[in-house]
Write a structure and sequence with these properties.
The structure is a homodimer. The first copy, chain A, is an alpha/beta fold. Helix content of chain A is about 35%, strand content about 25%. A nine-stranded mixed β-sheet of chain A has the order 6-5-1-9-10-11-12-13-14, with helices on both faces. In chain A, strands 2, 3, 4, 7 and 8 form a five-stranded mixed β-sheet that branches. At the A-B interface, helix 7, strand 14, helix 9 and helix 10 of A face helix 7, strand 14, helix 9 and helix 10 of B.
Chain lengths: ~300, ~300
């Protein structure tokens, strides 16, 4: 089934204990669509870049089957830029620089050819823009998933609370779940957040895995312990892309299928952190993904 | 099969955000034997207390089928005492007071009736004492498991490294695994630590679950997300008691059975944190344990 992803396409400059990069392709929608491309061939992007964005980077997306008709290239403007530096434990990072550039006035236009998309992924951006996208869809998608972050909870909580009743799946990390709910217990936090609107909640815990909540049901998928985590940038978006890509592929939004989707998303994220930026999730094979998912099966399966 | 547990039996005074206790029964061997009592009827204890230790507390252990022949009561001396205070997130605590008392000269004697024990649990205590216990066994148990902590890595690393090649299963937490191996990656840390002796390693991650390593095999069991964590004291020991109790009950030390044992241990630990001290793991029913294990099945099971 068709997937529409709306979010940032950006330049990133990264520094980890293992090295640093110049400007490389980044942005939530980049990771989401690349990751989803391994699952669904009908993969549509709405984003904005400046005319400094290299054609090769757009070709990279196209080569992954991403429909870039909705990628606006704004003349005379610059692409969103973020640079960050990870600490030694890879669990915390400092933002060194943010240049909003074209993202400051992001006005997402949905091409007519995208209007029938059944799956909608609202990548991390201002909640008011996420809501605008929803309102610009002529028919409501079968499943709407939204990613957000603490930044928006700090400066646009009302906007965020206004969009939450309009979506189906919210994905945030554990810190953000605690911030949004005001509760330390993730199980109680999940109840509080689901009462704000989304019937399904995914709490990402980074190296500690991910929790899926829906009503009284709960599922946990571990992260794969890796010998080396090289660069965590984009792991959450790659996870989200694998998750919704798998749902779109199977067109099955049952809880059992969402459990499978979480495993596929976690497998994709485990690749992402193995190299800088999106390097590792470009050019994966279906065999590699299948083998990685089997590592999760071995890791998590028991019988009692 | 028969289990022998050697470790501390103590008084604890606890303070959590939910309240505080007077002196209650504590100590690693207390939690281990109570937890193991739900699995194996042949449950033997070696420990030392002072004559201030109330008979009712010894009766509590006896009522759980714990053989206390090896519990030395030292006249005119006082029982080991620890008091601690947990921070709001329950993940960190301050030790308020430690009185070693009888533990300062713990000289574990193994009753003749214990000598044929097939499963040996060396609860957290000085590595030199743990080694002494092993040397005092007339025949080598089928499986020897050892728990230790960062404290011993700081002050008795050589003693610890001397005992590691003599044991089968080591259980430590993630911080301690990083300290012992000098490596942040738990997967690499596990390799390094297994090269020090133990063929099997369990890394406890508290609310983030537990990892089991053996050779190239790896298994992860989540912790059950709870609405309320009331008091984490003894959770690690309760986990260890459930794990080795299950192994002793089934007398099967295959990797697949250890996976099951980890789930049972995690289920026992999930009870432990629901009330102060050992309150919740006293008087559990087999039905409660079975139902809790089923919650783990629901939490962690998926098919791809």
């Amino acid at each position: 089934m068709s997937l529409l992803t709306v979010g940032s396409v950006a330049f990133d400059a990264l520094e980890t204990p293992f090295g640093k990069t110049d400007k490389i392709i980044g942005g939530a929608a980049t990771y989401i669509t690349l990751s989803a491309s391994y699952f669904t061939p009908n993969n549509n992007l709405v984003a904005v870049v400046g005319d400094d964005f290299p054609t090769e980077m757009i070709d990279l997306l196209k080569n992954h089957g991403v429909n870039t008709e909705g990628l606006e290239i704004r003349k005379g403007e610059k692409t969103f830029f973020w640079s960050g530096k990870y600490h030694n434990d890879m669990n915390s990072r400092d933002t060194l620089e943010v240049q909003l550039n074209v993202m400051e006035h992001f006005d997402p236009q949905i091409p007519a050819a995208y209007q029938d998309c059944k799956y909608l992924m609202l990548g991390n951006t201002a909640p008011a823009i996420q809501r605008m996208v929803l309102e610009r869809m002529t028919s409501r998608p079968k499943l709407v998933m939204l990613d957000t972050m603490n930044f928006w909870m700090d400066i646009a909580m009302d906007d965020l609370k206004a969009v939450l009743p309009m979506i189906d799946v919210l994905t945030i990390n554990d810190e953000e779940a605690r911030l949004l709910s005001g509760d330390y217990s993730l199980r109680r936090a999940a109840k509080t957040i689901m009462a704000m609107g989304p019937k399904t909640l995914i709490i990402k815990k980074g190296e500690h895995g991910a929790l899926l909540f829906q009503g009284h049901q709960m599922f946990f998928c571990p992260a794969l312990p890796l010998e080396e985590v090289f660069d965590p940038t984009g792991a959450g978006d790659t996870f989200a892309g694998g998750f919704i890509g798998y749902l779109a592929k199977t067109d099955n939004i049952s809880f059992d299928n969402m459990k499978r989707a979480i495993v596929y998303g976690s497998a994709m994220a485990s690749f992402c952190v193995e190299k800088f930026g999106s390097e590792r999730i470009v050019g994966l094979t279906q065999e590699e993904i299948k083998a990685r998912v089997q590592e999760f099966v071995l890791l998590a399966t028991f019988d009692v």
